[in-house]
Predict the 3D structure of the following.
Amino acid sequence: MALIKATCSDCGDVELRSKDVRVRICLDGGDATYLFRCPVCRMVEVRDAETHVVDILLAAGVDCTEWRLPAELHEPRSGAAITHDDVLDFHGMLEGADWFERLSAMTERP
């Protein structure tokens, strides 16, 4: 098992085993991060990782998780942006006993 040196925001340089680090790669954009829990303060650290860093970590036996952006990001958007007043109105609606019926009526399609 490889020994990996990383830097904790609070504790400085720490040594980790390859099983203590995880690489995450976004299949849609190719962006990658690695994360680890600091063995000193126990806080989780997440860092951006360039391709050569990912290659080194994977060669050292670090586990990798691949993920995709949510499909909702690619859906067309329409209508006005939600405002602070819209949020307050929605909050007020939720205080009523008939909030679900009112919300359902607002989202019905002709």
Remarks:
- DSSP finds three helices and six strands in the chain.
